[in-house]
Amino acid sequence: MAMPLESPISFTNVGRIRWWQRGIFASQTGYVLLALLVLLVVMHFASPYFFTEGNMQNVAKNFSFIAIATLGVTFVIITGGIDLSVGSMMCFSAMITSMVMSSLSTPGMPGATLFVHLAADGKTVVANVPGLILLVSVLAGLGTALIAGLINGFCIAVLGLSPFVTTLGMLSIVRGLGYVVSNGRGSFPGGPDADYFYALTSGDLFGVPAPFIYLVILAVVMAVVLHHTTFGRHVFALGGNEKAAELTGIPVVRVKIQVYVICALAAGLQGIVVSGWLGSAPANMATSYELTIIAAAVIGGANLAGGIGGPLGAIVGCVLLEVIRNGLVLAQVSSYWQQTLVGVIIILAVLVDRIRSRMT
Amino acid sequence: MTIPCANGQPVLELTGIGKEFGAIRALHDVDMQVFPGEVVGLMGDNGAGKSTLVKIIAGNFRPTHGEIRFDGSAVHFYRPIDARAVGIEVVYQDLALADNLTAAANVFLGRELKRQFGPFAFLDHRAMAARALQLFGELRSETRPDDLVKQMSGGQRQAVAIARTRLSNAKLVMMDEPTAAISVRQVEQVLSLIHRLKEQGVAVMLISHRMPDVFAVCDRVVVMRRGEKRADKPIGDTSPEEVTALITGAKEAA
After folding, report:
1. In this predicted complex, what is the ipTM?
2. The domain B12-248 is classified under which CATH number: 3.30.70.1350, 3.40.50.620, 3.40.50.300, 3.40.50.2300?
3. Closest approach of A155 to chain B, Cα-based (Å)
4. How far is B217 from chain A (nearest CA, A)?
5. pTM for the whole structure
6. CB contact under 8 A, B122 and A228
7. What b-and-e string marks burial along A104-135, b requiring 16 or more CB atoms within 10 Å of the CB?
């Protein structure tokens, strides 16, 4: 909050907007957070297992598996765009990472001699530099995501195609390529660095799941970028009024390409993390995740019309979805109900926001 | 030609400006001068060439013929940003504001103040709020820098759009239909904002359809018809009736 500034004029007839009518208190994120807290209390009384350490770890891990990608898609949604290719991107990026890792770790494959050699027994494969294979393969996975993001951004910002259509196409292209490169079988991380890979993706630090740690770091970075940098300001301006952004000299094309690249990278990272937990990257991994991810962002308060959204909302949306899923499991309700309930919540969250903005 | 306030050099001087779009002649041989601290009303019916003229001055179009002199030297604008660089600002009809941002954020849109921390540059929120508050003060507008534009009245929105032009110390501000879609009370506010700009020596070009507004604030009125300048008179030497006649063509020239 800024310090009170000395105003050279008096405000005679312009009322001050009260603190509870502005900021988070007046946002969809605010009351969805409130709803989440109420839900947590209800869950606590409904099931004695809910607030156990094991279940909490489980919840934290599970929502982290979509939340990183949700952060990315939130960037795109704030500019008024949409990215439907995140689910496929998760799969493809994870697949490339596993394939590169296995390939570089297999003596005889091209380039493998730079990274591995056979131990004296002639069977055991030893890494020349421990961790290097992991680094290269993760960079390969993220590099693939980067290229897909650049293509999305180029088609939307430079060629002027609709984000919906472009990313719908990319969804199919990337999923198809995943089947092509793996022959429909998917891929497994292998070689001497696979243990590091599992430790970094499905391990934990002092009982906190690794994906959750990445999520918190990325969310904090995102909050700083959105609210305290020129880029973030331009992202919001683009979603608020694209024409105004253009007229005031904001590099609209560049900002648009950047958000689609960020989104693709977030999805790629998310996919790599999830594949570590699954132990493989099957070709049908994260199918239709884009809908869950976009739903989480929208429930958390990101406005598909653009201009509104943030990391807190993205996380709140993901947590809400996961707590409901978890709650239904604990309550032994058929898991088929979950999808129905998610749909109801999406509509409810947006409806309450509409009613609230009518009242003020 | 009469020069109503010949206080030195004109800030903007157009000589023989013409513009053709293919076979269509949108502007023909327009001469015009605007002096510092002067408010000039630019009037004309739809298709008279007002918008084309404004877009040429703002750098959206390049003239087919003629010369633009700004502050005494010849200028060539290739993009709007070139016009802005020499001190020409445009307040667009729809104001070009982002509703979801605060007043201060809108004033500084595209020209944010930053502070360097090592390799990273962060927005300097406090400096921007302070400068925005000062600008709103100069414009005597009851607008708070940290209020969202979404929650503002039409007059306040105008103040935000005009404050943006003050940021760069523009010498010429062109306002495209600023009073077209707002209430009577807000029109008063906008007209007083124009007076504030005038007091500070800024030349203002007001493009408007509303006769009362033009006669309330302008020093001079320029009437366009069919791409040509038909009249250029001090406001005291003319009347709404005459201007209407010039716009409609009932009177050919004055």
Report:
1. 0.80
2. 3.40.50.300
3. 24
4. 23
5. 0.85
6. yes
7. bbeeeeeebeebbeeeeeeeebebeeeeebbe
